[in-house]
């Protein structure tokens, strides 16, 4: 028997006594949009869509870069859901207050429409990340910051889609992390990885080692210990440079992914709201741990929409050693 993501969301919703169904309707906007994005990503080499936004193609049409397309699709699909009042994207400086944001809109959605998009030109996997927050009591439509700037523990749902050798969606509403693989023959995300549990320990660490000289104290020694086999076995490294793909491997195989502060990015590179929070949420839901380098990442109280943070996520064994050493 197959379970589609739509069925799965409805089943999860039944566990909440007052569920109205509008939340599953909201999530269906994300599955629709990501299927549209996935389809464009699949044909990226064929359709002139690779390259800089604003270039004019042979038909004289202005080309749209894939990340611009992905952003527009998500904004459009989510704007049609009456439960959504505020949208924020990596691609837009300011949040969008949705036109019909009547007084009953309940949710804010934040996303990175196409993370790792510099990898598209060379046919490497990219992804979409998203997080959903509930509107705080009394927050009006013209104060979107109040909707958005909440600690990661307040996420009501989060997830990512990885456009890899297959397209996969991993999401959580706080009842475990579940993975779905897009079956292109029927156009549906089908449950393939129920209740993902990250192994307690993995074999790989994942970090951009070119920046190692500027990592804060402790990081170099920590990575050395992993390499030396001082933690049960010697580690190998894997770094795609596409966070969703690097994390997807980590959640399935265990290990650790780090984006520490560096001299170029002293606050880290990844964005709190739509990159770090959803990944940290899924990591914890799968039994792993997530840190901002010092504290539990999900406890962070963001102060601006595009704020960055150092990020370290992974399996229990690696994370506990990290907390001790760094
Ligand atoms: P982007 O949102 O501009 O695509 O940047 C985020 C990406 C992540 O996917 C990845 O983990 C990181 O940048 C890689 O950065 P670096 O090249 O500095 O290692
Ligand atoms: Mg990004």
TrEMBL record:
One of its GO terms (cellular component) is cytosol. Pathway: Carbohydrate biosynthesis; Calvin cycle. The keyword Hydrolase applies. Mg(2+) 1 binds at residues 90, 112, 114. Keywords: Carbohydrate metabolism, Cytoplasm, Hydrolase, Magnesium, Metal-binding. Substrate binds at residues 115-118, 208, 239, 269. Its EC number is 3.1.3.11. It catalyses: beta-D-fructose 1,6-bisphosphate + H2O = beta-D-fructose 6-phosphate + phosphate. Homotetramer. The gene is fbp. It holds the Pfam family FBPase. Mg(2+) 2 binds at residues 112, 115, 275. It comes from Blastopirellula marina. Belongs to the FBPase class 1 family. It is an enzyme of class 3 (hydrolase). This is Fructose-1,6-bisphosphatase class 1.
